[in-house]
Amino acid sequence: MILIFILVYLGGLLTIFAPCVLPAIPFIFAKSDQPFRRTGLPILLGMAATFTVLACIAAIGGAWLVQLNQYGRYVAMALLLVFGLALIFPTISERLMGPFVNFGGRLQERADQQGNVKGSLLLGIAVGFLWAPCAGPILGLVLAGTALNGVNFYSALLLLIFAAGAASSLGIALLAGTKVLGVLKKGFGAEEWLRKILGITVVLGVLFIAFGWDTRFLAQLAYFNTTKTEQALISQLSNTKLDQTSLKDQMPSLAGATEWINSRPLTNEQLHGKVVLIDFWTYSCINCIRTLPYLKAWDAKYRDTGLVIIGVHAPEFAFEKVPANVQQAVSQFDLPYPIALDNNYAIWNAFHNHYWPAHYLVDANGVIRDEHFGEGDYEETEKMIQALLKEANPKLPEFDSKSTVVRGSGATAPAANMPSSPETYIGYARQEGFSSPERILKDEARTYSIPSQLNVNDWALSGSWIVGSEAASLQNPNGSMNYRFKGRDLHLVMGSKDNAPIRFRVTLDGKAPLDSHGSDIDAQGYGILNQERLYQLLRLNQIGSSHLFKIEFLDRGARVFAFTFG
């Protein structure tokens, strides 16, 4: 538990180097020559409190809440613009912008002369609105857990600790700024020029944020890219689980399932005496899909000796909550074992789970004896299944020492042992790598274009699209998406409204994919989009450093959720 708090706090400390935070630093620096207790401290407290509230709101979701956050950013930018102009033109603020700048001038004057706590707190709240969208891998991990488990004391505490980390780093910058200003004042001998320089910096910071230059340009500077550092921290503490169910705990109840497929509802009492493998999965997750051949093979091999496999389907996207869609996926993958639909995350929360896929092995007495997260380690899992079966029934004959041989095909084939691009979400809630020249217009139609060049792991839209929190929806025919990727396989989670058929074509480096086509398109790259699911579009036979993928939708109505690779 303590290690998790440390990890989250370090993630907050690193936020000072994030692209979306840098333009906000001048607002903090501009106050560094004032008493810390009455100016700096209220700024940091206001910023931390605003971030925590907004992050909790983002985790809850809801379009109106997203709009509220966006409007808050507009108000924040306007307030900070007034603050910057008041620094530059303190004597003519009324002529520039009337009562608004006059208010900003009075606010700044009060803060300068009296150390106005309320004014500094208001400035901190404004900075908090600008800082709230900054989300690296560590914050993403916390937000994902909050979204699934709901906003509670624990998740709010994690967000507050993250905010405290960022406030600490900005506090250091604030204290250091005091010394820097002192040196500069002695050097120039003119405090008024320093105020003007700070004011210009503040105004430029607002413009950078308003036009999206903060993330578009600063993100290209490797020095400010903290993602690798955060990923390294997560890897070093990967054995630490966020409130994870412990081994030797009794298996939680399955009563929270909203529906069952392939079985009547199962209870812990009915499962007593059986060895149970709980598999948390969702049908558009490529990592989950690649584990299915092993689960099917174990079910066929060990069911008669006392193994019960239960797939707990915990949806990631809204369309995965539709029982008919899950039933179709179960039929497509030919899954014979019971599937519990966990649309309300009741079972997920009961296990304190945080991963897709996740496997929990339960012994005949209902005690959790083993757990594994992600793909791989199939041989070790099978050996544990055998050991628990022998423990439950010592009279069973000795099992074959050789592991079950599994050969998946299509999307179920094992991942390639090579570097690949990361999972990439298209909706603005978790979006990374978007590189169209136009800024995302949330939940409204906008025409986007493809830039002349894409860097690796960057993608772009062409045509008229509405980008929502989960997906982008094409409004007119012949819209397209480009992605420069690394890896052997490229998958795309997509669908259409009411499962209406939509024609599309894929190209690889500007040509038909031929024998590099995936299972859902032909050699010329043509395919039909209907149901909302994961589509395997490419399986390369020649792997280079990077490739340019393009998908063009010949009909309107396509909805695109996420890229995955392997």
Structure, described:
This protein has 566 residues and is of the alpha+beta class. It has three domains: 2-236; 259-395, 3-Layer(aba) Sandwich (Glutaredoxin), CATH 3.40.30; 424-565, Galactose-binding domain-like (Jelly Rolls, Sandwich). It is built from 16 helices and 17 strands. The strands form two sheets. Strands 7, 8, 9, 10, 11, 12, 13, 14, 15, 16 and 17 form an eleven-stranded antiparallel β-sheet that branches. Helix 13 links the parallel strand 2 (275-281) and strand 3. Helix 1 packs parallel to helix 8. The longest helix is centred in the first third of the chain and has 36 residues, at 153-188. The protein starts with a helix and ends with a strand.
